Model the fold of this input.
Amino acid sequence: MPRGDRYDSFTCLMISVMNNDSNITKLLLNSNADVTLTDDYWSMSALHFAGFHNSIESLNEILKIKNDTDFIDQQSKWFGFTPLNFAAFTGSTDVAQALVNCGSNETIKNEIGNMPLDTAKYYNYTDITALLQPNYHLRFIRNSDQNINGENDNLYLIVEKND
Done:
């Protein structure tokens, strides 16, 4: 019996991406699955789900099939998020890097008015912040305070502005 809800229009490709199953994703793509299809509820494609679910292997397979910027930068009805917005929202660094490498527009704002960089900053995803804000870099520092075992092993990642 059909559920009659927002999940009815998910394609097999979307589900394989959500489950991070790159083998099924490859099989579906080799069988000519349409990567441009979106669900009826949120207008999200498999690429959006890859960003949301940190499915880097599936994302890479999809980008081998289609990687034009109109597709990569398509906004969903979920607050106007693009795949890059989703990657920034969920901390999916590898996905964000792959999308940026394919030319994803980093300045597209969602319906709240945030660019992916704003979202990454809000959630304190320093690696994505550094990726989307090239005038910054990452640096590791050690804290000289000792832990309960008397060891100095406190390592911190900080984002610093380039000179």
User: Anything to note?
Assistant: The CA atoms of residues 63 and 110 lie 22 Å apart. The mean pLDDT is 85.
